[in-house]
């Protein structure tokens, strides 16, 4: 087998670890980024002598499988991947090892990560517990061919007195949604299924309107006038400018509507951008692009951040070997190779790499999207709050509650969870 040289790793450290012939076990989700790592694993195993066993399961199984191993004195997983939903819980329980000493000893550069990534799945209360793995931040998919159509340009100018172009503000975007709802096509398609799809999607509306989830004291603020207006915008888009049934769509059903050319726009996870140009499932190849969700001004962004992070559990049977793997998988060379395979980057140097940009021109837009993204509240009860928020948003969409009533109810339950978690005084 061909020998691979890993310039970013210490040869002495690799030699020392290789002598133990260890196995690193990691539980991972069945997603494309996991597949890309599997393709590259022979390089690590050849260079270090460490075997890597990836146990790949669906997302719904991961938390159930992880927790018994994390509470054990000696678990079976050497390293883990942590969804941002779980960061608060894992931190509060003390299940993750601090990484700062290892980072300092090996000179591993964490400054290359997108700052929002480090805030979400990197540092917690000033200590580094994770290295950002891949991002699933949300953005606005839109139809470039519809914006460039001369008949549309003329009609838009006649209707609004302004040029039809990529939207720079939230109000401009909403105007376009209304304009493109005609002739059997929709201005937007939403993922209104409760609890997770609607909660994540609506978060972009909240940020786009200038709202925030919490203040500095962890008191709920998303039931503010901005939050109410954001929910009213969401209800209008879903009911008036989207397809029937969108209130029960998850992201796959919503993307199918967009990819079959039936909608102008769709706010969704940025990894769907690549699927737009996959001819096996898309009828709009070369006709779609992604951008950050526009905010109140051209300088503001409304996108929701999302990511996974690598961590070493306290119960890891071989933390030194696990760290060797983390250093390798997040090294500049391997991070770039993963991106070239189609992976979702988290490092600025990868986003700025000429070869990556040449292969995936949307890389620049994805970087801008992330730099303007906002984080969801991460605390011990993040999953429970998502359930609450999704429930109340759905009640507002169905007309069982007003936007204000729904958000007030969700805010009250959030405050109870924050007090329970010791976040509020």
Q: What form results from the Cα inertia axes?
A: globular
User: How would you write the strand order of the largest sheet?
Assistant: 2-1-3-10-6
Specify the number of helices: 20
Task: Please give the share of residues in helix.
Answer: 40-55%
Whole-angstrom Rg: 22 Å
Kindly report the average pLDDT value.
94
Q: Mind describing the biggest β-sheet?
A: 5 strands, mixed
Order of helices and strands: HEHEHEHHHEEEEHHHHHHEHEEHHHHHHH
In terms of structural class, how would the helical and strand content be classed?
alpha+beta
- Strand content of the residues, in percent? 5-15%
- Give the termini separation: 60 Å
Short structural description:
The chain has 425 residues and is α+β, with helices and mostly antiparallel strands. The chain has helices at 11-18, 32-48, 59-70, 87-93, 100-106, 115-121, 144-148, 150-160, 170-179, 196-208, 225-240, 251-259, 272-276, 319-329, 332-341, 348-351, 354-359, 363-371, 382-397, 403-420, and strands at residues 23-29, 51-57, 79-83, 123-124, 127-128, 131-135, 138-143, 265-269, 288-291, 307-311.
